Amino acid sequence: MFPLARGLQAGRVLAPTLSICERFGFTMLFRSSRTASFSQTTRTQNRTSDLAPPSTPNSSSSSSSSSSQQNAYIHPDDFAATSHQSHGHTAAHSALNPLFESLLALPQTLARQAIHMATHVPRKQYPEHVPLTLLQKPLLALGSAVATLVDPERAHTLAALGDVTGSYALNGLRKRMKDHPIGSEILEDRPHLSSQTLDYAHLRTLPETTLGGAYIRWMDRRSFSADSRPPVRFVDDPELAYVMLRYRQIHDFTHVLLGLPTSVFSELIVKWFEFAQTGLPVCLISGVFGPLRLSSAEREAFAKTYFLWAMRSGHEAELLMNCYFERHLEDDLDQVRSRLR
């Protein structure tokens, strides 16, 4: 066969291979390159044989030439079988391609979702609510913690620290309140302790031995008001926001029940008592760093005696969040203490 004819024959044979390569990509590339390499070798051999001087015809050279031509020729049926087998492998790879593409795109998808979650601002849920992104909350927590350590008297920074760090503990408190008959009633009614709901004039007529009488005298001696508690602003869930607000509003009742003033030493005892009851991180932070403001003698006394007393009392006492204080203002203070132990 002449070289030109051989080239046309090879082109007709390789045409399906090129089509398959264009359709299925790299899966057939290796197989087609092998076929192209084989055809190139065959053409080179044919050109060499055409340029070589004619040899004396004999039986051995004739047999060698016939064998070379047979090796250079690829039967269409053989190629079709090879192409069919390659198509099966290609189909399998094509089926896996979407999975590989999904795996390759997974880090980008996760990063996009993480960015969206970190920068997404929730809707405003109640009048005092200040929505924050997940990125802003830890920054506010860090800034509030530093500001509180510098100046513990700044109630608003301490309140902000409690708002952004108390989500887990507040969920636990809500569950305990819902599991208690009085606590669930408080969550449903959502009473507020304020100058509008508490009749200060009436409380001042009560004996000091009552809960209400002891409370109003404790407040008057320090010129405190129930309205001075900072509002909850950074808790997204409205019900959890109320749980945090209730915790703040009954703080003064906790002082009255424990019989403690408002000194740094007494405040530390109250904070550890509240931490044992609520698990709020803001109580833990105050209890850990508060002793830095005590003298060495006070720290030693606190560590040896009052710390353990506060933790044990907080664990053993009834959860004060489940006490409807508004209904017991005229009750004897000692009887209220006994019921809550």
Structural write-up:
It is built from 16 helices and no strands. The protein is an all-alpha fold. The N and C termini lie far apart (110 Å).
Produce the secondary structure layout.
Blueprint: H1 3-24, H2 29-51, H3 59-72, H4 76-119, H5 136-150, H6 155-165, H7 167-178, H8 181-189, H9 200-204, H10 211-221, H11 238-249, H12 251-258, H13 264-278, H14 281-289, H15 296-316, H16 333-340
Helix pairs in contact: 1-2, 1-4, 5-6, 7-8, 7-11, 10-12, 13-14, 13-15
Question: What is shown here, in short?
Answer:
The protein has 341 residues and is mainly alpha-helical. The protein has helices at residues 3-24, 29-51, 59-72, 76-119, 136-150, 155-165, 167-178, 181-189, 200-204, 211-221, 238-249, 251-258, 264-278, 281-289, 296-316, 333-340.
